[in-house]
TrEMBL record, chains A, B, C, D:
Domain of life: Archaea
InterPro entries named among the record's database cross-references: MJ1210-like (IPR004426), Proteasome_assmbl_chaperone_2 (IPR019151), PSMG2_sf (IPR038389)
Signal peptide boundaries: none
Name of this protein: Proteasome assembly chaperone family protein
Gene3D superfamilies: PAC-like subunit (3.40.50.10900)
Residues covered by region (Disordered): 234-256
Length: 256, 256, 256, 256
């Protein structure tokens, strides 16, 4: 295995496509969004590239007994009445600091190969608490890009994301800008504690407006309901534990 | 020391051999199995290769005062009325993520050199608790391989192993598949807390059926008995500790 | 992204300049000092180089929604009646041991390119407690350099800094000396717990004397006042917590 | 800084010298021994090589205000009526797994350059408790080497050192053996908690017998006395703390 191995699985003709990145990160928002996008547009998409790398975790995933080596996948998506897309999905980011740089450069190479000059990195921005309303926070590689984003409700905040954007999403902006891309990151607010399908939906709704495609959200909403049940149970359990820890009069009488 | 150094210790003519990997992992199952296999078939085996690498821990092991640099060994085994084998054993896996890729590629190079196109990685799948019955869970590089395995009792489970297979065992499947091998991983159930000779035996019994050789298990069973004594003592000690922690009436009287 | 990428943003003619390094470290003293120096001498300075590297954290910082890839910057500063300067600033050190060596060599390359043969690394030396007086401790690459420093109040102490000087500051002395530079490190005493603008001021006052430029300190003093308010509040909170933990007669009566 | 930089500080003619390694490790035994050896034979020794490397910690040590880049030193020692020596000393081991391999190969290159074919790595073997008698445990690269060592009191134990020998000391045996050296490691028993001059003395006394030189031990004995005072004080403090933690009748009366 070289530092990088790129399998050309198939080819596709795309017209000025937009790269959309959906790798795991905060709240798994980017991954949920990218996976859902592909699911909904499966009829219009073709797997074109697989990236393998020494920089990925040294493992295989196993599904129904069949193994698959860690990789990232790029699908070419050609929607009617919408922008052509290159969708990047995967289960892992790189495992070292330099690895992130290596991987991001490879992704940009592939994007250039297909004629892309714009990209969206999708992710989450942690709020530290469970939330009801899901704003989408933005970051762009150049100031001139802000207006169309603000028009569809993306918020550019003074102090967020605190600490910047780490990993492939951040480097797609940083290295993308150096290589002539118009790069943006859309981050759905999320608690940061859980996988968050509602946050993924918020991000995809912005993307729909900007890239003119339409998605159905039924499966994401189903997942959101499952998550809410889980959250409910955790909160119940925590309350029970707290009640158990307060010493009652009976406990004290036993000691004294 | 280069990234890899392979010593050709001896040569051997093998007919369509199967690579069998027994490096340490969960419950040391793979290592116990690999070492036992070599012990039992010692009369039919020749040490052919030693692998040294910067990716191994920087240490020597010491036995009776004599040092030995960390390495992995490959033995050629030619059993009558059974498949020829290349058995990989060692005390350590690689020490870094990229190191696992480097090491696994080297192992596959050697396997190809001897004409192998099939491989078995041996390991354990942790159950999190002590068990009585030892199932063997399987993972294969291609779906078409499942049937003969199921026929000898290997179980292909929907959600196991959770988290996939990490390290050389996993990469033997992942990189092996890319290089044209038929690759399988046999994992004996094990608690994950202890070295588990019974799990190793379960795995070897499956291998016996698939590769048509016969093993004696006396020394493995002896080790299993030793382990059971150790487990028994640990359980006794834990019970005593628990009894000591419950405050008795006497303790309470002292405070009050 | 190569191991290093150096953008030549602009050129400048400097006469025997001195390299001044202000990267983050203990108490952020070096960074505060470097940033303040640039702020005050902005009228006389030009950004000449940006360093990007795989050895920097794989992230972008985001300010008002606009992203910027991690980098270090070098400004050429030409002050009237003072030594010409090359000022190195940035938000991060390298992320690995070998990375520090790589980065420091690159910085020295640029310094040589502009004709520098002297350098100052700025930092802090931790005292472990809040202090009132701010001494500046020194380290030099050659004994002959001590006198002029002592004359302006720099202290060379027998056992400080204990553990030496780690990171780019230390390597600027170590590698700088091997490459023919006269290298010195000025370290302001600081508690080590907080960002310390007073310590940065102490260091800059020494630099002013040695390099014959003049700085205004109003903005640094403002930051120092803010820090003192923060410290005051932390001390108040700690006192309150301590008072709460002492069991009162009332608490004891409740148990007994 | 390349991966390695070796400064040829001076040359020396040695006759079949023995490489003696004294880098820091368990109980700092090897370092104390190596430093003491050089101190005592200073009149007969010349600094011949300095090794710098990206694999060393990225720092300078500072003594009386003067900086020194992390390095290892090799002195050539020509004693009358004793074996010629190449003594390796330093303050640090390599900082990564692969770094140990790189560093050890460089040391062996220099040893070969000076015509050495035998080596001694000096270190400590931890007992886990303070001891009175200091045995010296041995490990050799080949079984045939044991006898002369046993004759001077070196012990070859069945299960020690458990876990083998890690770092440059271990690799000097492992890589040394592959490069045709007769390699041995002498390890003084030590608690593992403290710097141990008595253990260093025990190791040097064995070396004296094997290599036919004579050392004075006054300064090492002084250090041993200092250590014993420190140990005494720590033991006193621990006893006081224990006495304070036992609740007295008075304490209990207060609660009840």
């Amino acid at each position: 295995m070289d530092e990088l191995e790129i399998d050309a699985v198939a080819e596709a003709e795309l017209d000025d496509p937009v790269l959309v990145e959906g790798l795991p990160g905060v709240g798994h928002v980017g991954k949920l969004a990218g996976d859902h996008l592909l699911e909904e547009l499966a009829g219009d998409s073709t797997l074109v590239r697989r990236l393998y790398s020494r920089e990925f975790p040294p493992k295989v995933s196993v599904e129904d007994g069949v193994s698959e080596l860690t990789c990232a996948e790029i699908h070419a998506v050609s929607v009617e009445d919408g922008r052509d897309l290159l969708v990047l999905t995967g289960d892992h980011q790189a495992q070292s600091n330099t690895g992130h740089y290596v991987l991001t450069d490879a992704i940009l190479d592939i994007a250039e190969e297909f004629g892309a000059s714009e990209l969206f990195a999708l992710g989450g921005v942690p709020t530290g608490e469970l939330i009801e309303e899901y704003a989408v926070v933005g970051a762009v590689s150049d100031e001139s890009m802000c207006e169309p984003f603000e028009e569809v409700g993306v918020e550019f905040r003074e102090d967020e994301p605190a600490g910047g954007i780490v990993g492939v999403s951040g480097l797609l902006l940083g290295l993308g800008e150096r290589r002539g891309f118009e790069a943006a990151c859309l981050m759905g607010e999320t608690s940061g504690y859980l996988v968050d399908p509602k946050s993924a939906r918020a991000v995809l709704e912005v993307l729909e407006e900007l890239l003119e495609f339409e998605l159905d959200y039924e499966s994401l909403d189903d997942r959101a309901e499952e998550m809410e049940e889980v959250v409910g149970k955790i909160q119940e359990m925590e309350q029970q534990q707290q009640q158990q820890q307060v010493p009652t009069d009976d406990d004290l009488r036993y000691i004294g």
